[in-house]
Amino acid sequence: VNIDNTGGFALEYEVEVSANWVGFDWLTVPQSSGTVNPYSNAALTVNTASTADLDPGGYTGYLYFNTNGGSDPNQVVRTDTVEVYMNLLEDNSQITQDSVDVPAGNAEPITLLDSEGNPLGLVLDFLNSQGGTVNVTRIDATPPTSASTPFDDPSSGITDPYFARVYFEISATFSGSYAVDIGFDYSTIPGVQDASMLRIAKRSLNAGVSEEWNIISQAATNVDMDNNIVYAQNQSGFSQWALLSNTGENSFIDVSAPAIQAAVLTPSDPGALEEVTLTVIINDETGIANANLHYTQGGSETFSSLVLSVTSGSSYSATIPSSDVTRNGLIYYIQAEDDLGFVSISDTIGVEVNFSSGDLSTSSALSSAYSTGFPIDKWRMISIPAKLDDYQVGNVIGDELGSQTSSTWRIFEWNDVSLSYKENPVNFSSGKSFWLYQRVEDNLSLATPAGETGSMNGTSLTIKP
What we know:
The protein folds into 4 domains: 2-88, Immunoglobulin-like (Sandwich); 95-246, Chondroitinase Ac, Chain A, domain 3, CATH 2.60.220; 259-354, Sandwich (Immunoglobulin-like), CATH 2.60.40.10; 380-453. The protein has one helix at 393-401; strands at residues 2-5, 11-18, 20-21, 24-25, 27-28, 33-36, 40-43, 47-48, 57-67, 77-88, 95-102, 110-113, 119-128, 132-139, 151-152, 161-174, 179-185, 199-203, 213-215, 221-224, 229-235, 240-246, 259-260, 264-266, 276-283, 288-297, 304-307, 309-312, 315-320, 330-338, 343-345, 349-351, 354-355, 380-382, 386-388, 409-415, 420-423, 434-438, 451-453. It has a 7-stranded mixed sheet with strand order 11-14-16-22-18-19-15, with no helix packed on it. Strands 12-13-17-21-20 form a 5-stranded antiparallel sheet, with no helix packed on it. The protein is mainly beta.
């Protein structure tokens, strides 16, 4: 706090602090009294304290100055009061900043970015200037305001102001006058249900709860719904800026779970024992607290979990190790939780996996009835639990059984048209059962040509009234 003594007598002062919340003093003045020589000034240091003991929110404190600056220089009385407002942010809240140089003339619109290159949610479109520098701070909290904070709307549209939980402190250095359209990217703000009702308000830089909000008129407000930006048009200065509407028009609160888009796999057509990287876009108005990939192989009910890590912006990825990618296929789903605890779970997706010739056999198939081989001199049912590159019976089992003869092996399939069994079919069909009898070798291992996992599309049930 700057103390100016514009008079010819030494200024004596004493400071009383009133900033207590349930027993915690959150403002302190290391030196509460002093003297300022005539026609000079001094700086009074004010510190915050005990913030770890306070709840998030706005706090108002006061510095009461008792000085001899009244009519009697020999008498110390209360002459000045300084209101101090503190906005204490919640956990995980952010203060983000950017500084940009603006070229002279009608510059291209400027999107402000944080230190990681992410948009701050503010766009500046200079219509004319001689060039300068703009400094922007975004505060993700309700701006300093209360039920008693005055406001003025020249359009009379705002009668019960309700502010979004974000505001900007903007300062600038320009060599001359300028005109600028100041745009809020409302896609970065949660709970905007009706963008047409959004308005922008301004007041002096670093203003507290007692300072009046000047609401930009409706004539100077432009809502660009194609780009999700609301503009205060043709402004000639910077200060504290906020977004608002009437109570009930927009909630400015995230009540939605994260939106999980369709994932992309690399490679898109994986092979057995080949690692698979999954990349997915997850969006949320508030922010993602955690995201996980849950996966298993076909035929298993036990899921493994991997953390989905941010790659850039809203893009997340995780890599399934090669040892977990088998001919049985992959099954996965994604779960994401936002900062407010809302959870989304994606659809469960199946992924076919390619396998090589000989990989699928009676001994290796999951839950095979013939894990020790196909028996001799017994009629047994057999089916192909996969999509094969070659379904010809002779090419699938002929290499183990040899040429088909009635004395070596026989195979039958059911015919739905004739309602009878047909001997020696030409082709197998995925998932269809066939009766097989062989006299070549007991416990004979039968293997298939190359192929991929059977359909992983799941089951669709249509419920009819």
